[in-house]
Amino acid sequence: HGRRAVDQGRFLLAWALVGLLTLLLTYLTLVALYQGQWDLKSYRTMIELVSALYERGHPVYLDGQSSFAGFSHYYARTALYKTPTALLLAVAIGFALPRRRFGPRPLSLLALAAGYAALLSALRYTLGLRYILVCYPLLLIAAGRLLQERPEPEAGERARKSADGRWRTWLPRGIALGLVVGTIIELGTVYPHPLRYTNPLLARRAKHQHLADMDLDWGGGLLALRRYLRGRPSEPYALSYHGSLHPRRFGLHPAWYENPSSRRPSEGTLPARGLFFASSTNISGLYGGVDLSA
């Protein structure tokens, strides 16, 4: 019947070799990513820093509140704010389409994504939506499966190929196409800065009143700021910035500059007149700095 007995010892040896090869490839990939560091010193340092960060806590912002202990509902709320409307509709429509039963595959994918997010929520390691990005491919595949699965026809329907049958075939495809087009249009409104996207139906207040830090703002506007200032070469300006690169790298030289999350919070003298630019994270007040509410 096409089956062949496999020696147990050989079977275990084969999978042990697969495991060793996987570890070797992983190690070589890390060496390549860290520019030939065979001892992976930078990688080990990063692990130590992340561990220390987890132990002492890190400020997390959500809906106008900050916490060093995290929020148990952080991933659930943030995922709703950052997930495009089309993907949420795809899952909802997939469940709403008439059918006798749901297949196990999409449900298992949804359960896996929800379980992973719930685990991180229970650990209170809620330092950015990026830690549950692995859930989004699962959601996309599950949404596609839900839209693809059609209800099983009744006995009398199997004998006839009617317009109703064609309608049931093309309806999910039309819905899927419409959702893809809708996603492109919706995300096009924030191009080329996708990090600042928030769902307009669920995040109704100003963006910095819902999210901050790596969920919204990481210094992505410096190039746009440089283009804006080219037409105002003599006007003094101040910059309250959140990010990892100094604005000087982009040819920006403000009269006064602060980065509350850095080791050197401020530089220069705040001008009495001129322009003032601020990152959204600093407007939220997550890391302190100058009171920007005024």
How is this structure best described in words?
The structure is a single chain. This protein is an alpha/beta fold and 294 residues long. It has helices at 8-33, 41-56, 74-82, 85-96, 104-123, 135-148, 163-188, 222-229, 280-284, and strands spanning 60-62, 65-67, 237-240, 256-258, 266-268, 275-278. Strands 5-4-3-6 form a four-stranded mixed beta sheet. A two-stranded antiparallel ribbon has the order 1-2. Strand 1 (60-62) and strand 2 form a beta hairpin.
Summary of the model, kept short:
This protein is of the alpha/beta class and 294 residues long. It is built from 9 helices and 6 strands; from the N terminus they run ααββααααααββββα.
Helix content: 40-55%
Q: Could you name the ranges where pLDDT drops below 50 across 5 or more consecutive residues?
A: none
Largest sheet: 4 strands, mixed
- Structural class category: alpha/beta
Helix and strand pattern = HHEEHHHHHHEEEEH
Distance between the termini: 79 Å
User: How many DSSP H or I helices?
Assistant: 9
Please report which band the strand proportion falls in: under 5%, 5-15%, 15-25%, 25-35%, 35-45% or over 45%. Answer: 5-15%
* Spatial strand arrangement across the major sheet: 5-4-3-6
Mean pLDDT: 83
Give the tally of β-strands: 6
Computed CA radius of gyration, to the nearest angstrom: 26 Å
